[in-house]
Design goal:
245 residues, alpha+beta, 2 domains, three-stranded antiparallel beta sheet, 5 helices
């Protein structure tokens, strides 16, 4: 699971899974869905900060992982914000119904957080930034390749895979290197493939920070797929708070 601080908790496609008319409504009413996703995450971050304020010992927000209830909280809140704006624009009862429906789902997801707690990792591994990829000598089949990477810690736990970089290969291969190394990173993995959502680990053992990976003349197209980060080490109980509405 990704860390809450790794970036976007959910995307537009996650929202469309719960509302297939989302993009049509956003287009008609001139609503920036990406902005609503950011606002929803900011609101949740503020509420999570209050939850953590009562924890003993203190827990850094950077140790929170995105569990299923936390992701659903974000999805439903973003959808509520979209339909709140849509209703204010047109005072359309259909929009009001959607707004109220998603508001109830926000409360449901929040209740699941109260029941289960926040997922916490002991040693958070930040999401890697896209690796540096450049052409080098080799005989990899010509084509476009997508290359991502992920940091690992001393215990072998792996952070969320980076956004992939893209490189066009013709009569060559490619080399991969990482940028600045996080303090707790002990190694890293390379993931590559011919499609951005179908990436597989290319190295057999963790690479050391500072090491450059040179892709052989084949691409591993099976085995371990690019992942979504760490599982939580424990669930932190959180206090019940009065929700708006």
């Amino acid at each position: 699971m990704a860390l809450f601080t790794d970036g976007d908790v959910s995307g537009i496609e996650d929202l469309r899974g719960y509302d297939t008319q989302l993009l049509d409504v956003a287009n008609i009413e001139g609503i920036d869905v990406t902005r609503k996703l950011k606002l929803a995450q900011d609101e949740i971050a503020a509420e999570v900060a209050v939850m953590l304020a009562g924890a003993s010992p203190t827990v850094d927000p950077g140790r929170i992982v995105v569990t299923t209830p936390l992701k659903l909280w974000h999805v439903f809140l973003a959808l509520e914000l979209v339909y709140r704006d849509a209703y204010r624009s047109q005072l359309n009862d259909r929009y009001a119904g959607k707004r109220d429906e998603f508001h109830l789902m926000v409360k449901w997801a929040h209740e699941k957080i109260i029941q289960t707690g926040l997922g916490i990792v002991n040693d958070p591994i930040v999401r890697a930034t896209p690796p540096h990829v450049e052409l080098c000598s080799g005989s990899l089949p010509d084509g476009t390749y997508y290359v991502a990477a992920a940091w690992t810690d001393v215990a072998g736990a792996e952070g969320m895979t980076s956004i992939p970089a893209t490189i066009d290969v013709a009569g060559s291969s490619f080399a991969v290197r990482m940028g600045a190394t996080p303090a707790n990173a002990a190694g890293w993995h390379v993931y590559a493939g011919v499609a951005p959502h179908s990436l597989f680990q290319q190295n057999s053992a963790p690479l050391t920070p500072g090491q450059t990976w040179t892709q052989p003349d084949t691409i591993t197209a099976g085995g371990k797929a690019a992942g979504f980060g760490q599982a939580h080490d424990y669930l932190l109980p959180v206090p019940r708070m009065i929700q708006r509405g």
